[in-house]
Amino acid sequence: MLPMTTVVEPSRPRGTSKLLSADRIVLLVAVGLIVLVAVRWHAYQWDFYMFYGSASDFLHGISPYRGKGLSFYHPPLTLYLYSLFARLPFLPAYELWLFLKLVALAGLFLLWKRHFLKLEHTWRTTLYFLLAYNGTIYSDVVSGNISLFEQLGLWFGFAALLKGRYARFCLCVILVSQFKLTPIFFSLLLLLAPTRPQWKWFAACCAGFVAVFSLNFALQPGLLKDFFSVAPALDERGTLAPGTLAFIRDVFDRLGGPHFSDGTRADEAIFLIAALAVAALSLLAVARYRRTVPGPDSKVIIYFACLAYSLLIPRMKIYSYILLLIPTLHLLGALPRRTLVPAAVAMLVAMVVFPHGNSLLPFRSLSQLFYEYLPLVAAFGVWLGFRRALRHEQPDAASFALASRPSDIAVGSLPTA
Question: Any idea what DSSP says for residue 118?
Fold first, then answer.
């Protein structure tokens, strides 16, 4: 008889099976939410409904710029793109739009992992990207907006900028800016991120943007006039549009009564002052960082520009905060525990102490803004954190810059409070 042998299986680390189970559960929840959007086509992707209907009007010679409800607010040139979907029956067009958005999301994660931060497949990673900034990624999938495509174009351009491929970066910024115009702001990175300012490429980027946008006038002058008439009147606020100008207007209406901001220009003046202050402080921080840190990291400058952009532009929808996911993750991975713990405690205290809307306290209306504009508050806090880390007197400024290397940060290894 053969001698009996005992096979000893390698021992598993404690908690491994539990962790894998948590990974699968959170991932299944995330996938389930996406499947829900695909199945309930009659209830979700309302922005795609608007794009599809606007493109149908365009194909029939009707102006889609109604200025109310789910009106069309993009420049006329984009209607040529949306009309490709309007030529299909609605349900196949709906599912195709969702499929392309998921492809864009996968491409975005691939770009982030390959060129910016290491992203480990853990339940904490999935939960972060599912819930961060009031569920910014899921908000884009549910609403059917074009934001994921914009983000893919921007981050593809950022990756090209890191490699010194300025023509590709300019092309990305020019094309992305044709939808909501404000991303042309990132052309300034040509002057801030490279070792030497690229003035010629900056001029080329601005000229290219103007040239492409001029096609609106050449092809659809009547619709361009309609666009300029309805776009300035767009006023979205609160949970779905937590931007700086919307916050200022809501403060005015809380203090002066409903629609008080409609009859004054003071809200726009205050926004302009705040935007100029953020711009000046941001430029000063970047200038000090480039002057004092040997070999300044272009990634850190890109992240800081994303945060400044979110505070500077007048309109910031909830799905636009996808732009801040990687910068925020970088800061969380770079900050020491002695900083994270007080910050987490301060946030918890604020959420506990601030009264909700159903409170009987007389200032409950103002405190409710804290919850409605929590993504904006978080963006401002992360901007302050970056600005402090970039200050020349910060002793670990160089290590903060080095932390942007993809191999140095992983969501699964973030310090926890």
Answer: B
CA atoms of 66 and 44, how far apart (whole Å) = 22
Q: Tokens for 357, please give them.
A: 């809307």
Torsion 294-298-299-301 (CA) sign: positive
Banded model confidence at residue 406, pLDDT cuts 50, 70, 90: very low
For 121, the token pair is 């497949």
- Look at residues 227, 243, 258 and tell me which one is the last residue of a structural domain: 227
374 contact partners, CB below 8 Å, separation of at least 6: 134, 242
Contact of 75 with 224, CB cutoff 8 Å:
yes
Q: Which residue has the tokens 């349900």?
A: 91
Structure tokens at 167: 């023509």
User: In degrees rounded to 5, what are phi and psi of residue 392?
Assistant: -65, -25
Q: Could you tell me the pTM of the whole model?
A: 0.85
pLDDT at 413: 38
194 vs 247: CA distance, rounded Å: 34
pLDDT category, 350, cuts 50, 70, 90? confident
The residues, ordered by sequence, that sit 6+ positions from 153 with a Cβ below 8 Å of its Cβ are 172, 175, 176
Same-domain pairing of 195 and 288 = no
pLDDT in tens, 185-217: 999 999 999 999 999 999 999 999 999 999 999
Q: Are residues 195 and 279 in the same domain?
A: no
pLDDT for 95: 92
284 and 171: one domain?
no
Residue showing tokens 């801030």: 192
From 227, 243, 269, the end of a domain falls on 227
Cα 366 from Cα 250, distance rounded (Å): 9
Position 327 pLDDT exceeds 70: yes
Looking at the structure, tell me whether residues 220 and 250 fall in a common domain. no
Tell me the residue range of the domain where 144 lies. 29-227
Task: Report yes or no: 317 and 241 within 8 Å, Cβ to Cβ.
Answer: yes
Closest CA to 307 of 296, 321, 318: 321
As given in the structure block, the two tokens for residue 89 are 């029956």
CA dist 317 and 241 (Å) reads 4
